[in-house]
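Data card: per-record layout.
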Amino acid sequence: MVDVLFDVALVIWIYMSLFFLLAMFLKDNSIVDIGWGPGFILITLLMIVQRPIPGMRGIAYVFVILWGFRLARHIFLRNRGRREDFRYAAWRKEWGNWFVPRSYLQIFMLQGIIMLIVVYPIVVISVAPLRPIGIIETIGVLIWLIGFYFEAVGDFQLSRFKKDSDNKGKIITSGLWKYTRHPNYFGEAAMWWGIFLLALPVQHGWTTVISPILITYLLTKVSGVPMLERGCEGNVQFELYKQRTNTFFPWFPKKPQKDIKNHE
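The structure for this 264-residue chain is written out next.
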């Protein structure tokens, strides 16, 4: 398996380096977000070329390709015609003369390392001997399907909400967003927990738990939930929404515990 991991790491390094060069040409580091999904598709295609597709391998391969394609398409359509994302634009100013090397290392190479860790279950599944699909794998498939539903439908509902000019300055609180403030992030994490369960029964499968743990941590503690909610601080509508709606795991809305008044 070590040689397969080395091949995957090499492909990721080349892929992210090419995206870095494209970002320098376009002067837009936020294209790294578009490259996230296709990177997993590329790795999966590498696994398909090297290993047969039947059984659990085929399920895992299809899941990753479907997820990667949908996510890349969504981010591309969302960012089309826009300027560089505010996060990357801020780093461009902050890093000054060190912008180029720090972009390569802290954005593209760091994301490449994360990609290698997250895709690890697919590598383990690809090198494992073929085996019948059991109870654990079936539960993994169900969890993945639930996750895909939350991510795809959540993104669709948010996109449709933002396209309505009457919703400018408002916060979406309907649909899946009624049960969790971040249905798309919950869905993303759930999908990788599902793939972990597909890998769990095979040799060394338990080690792949690092993949969903990492993606869940990043989404809930680093670049997902905290970054988005920081921009909503002080918004009265959001504070009320925050009181009655779970942050991550979907659940029925709660009654607000206290009144929040607008002191503007």
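Known properties of this structure: Residues 153 and 176 are 8 Å apart (CA to CA). The first helix runs from residue 2 to 26.

See the next section for split statistics.
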